[in-house]
Amino acid sequence: MSPVSSPSARPGAAADGLSRVERKELTRQSILAAALRLAETGGLSAVSLRQVAKDVGIVPTAFYRHFDSIEELGLALVDEAFVSLRAMLRDVRSADPAFKDIIDSSVRVLTEHVRAQRGHFLFIARERFAGPAAVRSAIRHEIELCERELATDLARLPGPDAWASEDLYVLANLIVGAVVSTAEELLAAEGRRSAEDAVAERARTQLRMMLVGALNWRSRP
Amino acid sequence: MSPVSSPSARPGAAADGLSRVERKELTRQSILAAALRLAETGGLSAVSLRQVAKDVGIVPTAFYRHFDSIEELGLALVDEAFVSLRAMLRDVRSADPAFKDIIDSSVRVLTEHVRAQRGHFLFIARERFAGPAAVRSAIRHEIELCERELATDLARLPGPDAWASEDLYVLANLIVGAVVSTAEELLAAEGRRSAEDAVAERARTQLRMMLVGALNWRSRP
DNA sequence: CTGGTCGGTGCACAAGCGTTCACTGAACGG
DNA sequence: CCGTTCAGTGAACGCTTGTGCACCGACCAG
């Protein structure tokens, strides 16, 4: 059988226009995609090497040409997932910084990214607690990076710019937590637009509530 | 081999002072405890009937005398876990309602319960996304109940008592989300007191920030 | 005392798992 | 052109898995 796409690619026959490294990368991507899909029922630890291989269209042992173990595959998936998450953060940051509707645009960017990268968000939400220890700590580390980034962003805002850096991080932690909860509720909406809209509206109100709290907050001496 | 406690209980020999139903319940509890522990590495879907049986000290097929499947066992664990969670909520509610330190006492109750019921909290945090569909929706349903309960509690507070019920639920959702995040961070602290204390202190500040936000919030007309 | 109930036993089976090993042949560098 | 590299092959291994079945014997109601 041929890898990557069962009916079209021909490994032993005439060469497509692809170099050897290109074909290897293609198979690698197929493995990642298959694992992401298979992990949706039962989590990463329930993904079997043989299932992935069958799904990709290669023999089980060929898996080892790309990853040493399922756990290493999981770490690669974490990387992949946080690439799209960072893309989202970039979008949020580059949005119109008109203070008034910064919340609206951020929530919209979040809902769109969750819809577009559903698989990655699901993976992170799941493996954050269910994954192998190495995967869990990789995810935790990445989330912590996001919090620190947000804290430095907040420091540039007119209200909290006079805060203790301690309080800045605490607020960032609170916001990231709320965003994670919102993302998880969006996932639970399973694509139903009305449910998604309700979650988004709720998130807007919550962020506004937090904003009101922040604007009336004074760091203790 | 004998169930419940390998060296002491004797099934075929002289009877301990236990009736048949008592012995069955004891075995059932042992199965639940074993499953909870085994689920810690790999999640519920990675728990095998045979492992549980070996751990409890019964033969694999005897498992079916208590549960039809691992999934049904999972639902029983959800029930068990939310029993302790409700006990926690009762403790929070019955605490001294002196408005000033209601936050301090709530956070202390939370940290104590997470420490005492670590296994249950871990189970909920994990299976909320990684578990079988039935388990996931059972957990989601229970959390939603907690949010509604909290909303009715909030309605009795001096500040938000004039709010729209819509906003009350939104605030309850925000608080529950923050509490869930805090519980998850307490779990991530893995029992190290200094880390736990830092999380608790952060949670106190966050709840105060939300309180400030709530006190300055006005429901839109 | 007796007969039914039922938790626990022991064996068997087919299916799936990760991993090993020697192999093939297209793509590539010199 | 020719030798090397290496992604993918295919058979084989020892193990664990869920589940079906006939069976046992302590408990308990009558």
Structural class computed from helices and strand pairing of chain A = mainly alpha
CATH class value of the largest domain in chain A: Mainly Alpha
User: How many β strands of chain A by DSSP?
Assistant: 0
Uncertain ranges of chain A: 4-14
Protein name (chains A, B): TetR family transcriptional regulator
Organism (chains A, B): Nocardioides zeae
InterPro entries (chains A, B): DesT_TetR_C, Homeodomain-like_sf, HTH_TetR, HTH_transcr_repressor_FabR
GO molecular function (chains A, B): DNA binding
Q: Which secondary structure elements does this structure contain, and how are they paired or packed?
A:
2 copies of one chain form a homodimer.
Chain A: H1 20-38, H2 49-56, H3 70-93, H4 102-116, H5 118-130, H6 133-154, H7 165-188, H8 193-215
Helix pairs in contact in A: 1-2, 3-4, 3-5, 3-6, 4-5, 4-7, 4-8, 5-6, 5-7, 6-7, 7-8
The first copy, chain A, binds a DNA duplex (30 and 30 nucleotides) through residues 1-3, 11-12, 15, 19-20, 23-24, 27, 48-51, 58-62, 64-66, 69.
Sum this structure up briefly.
Two copies of one chain form a homodimer. Chain A has 221 residues and is mainly α.
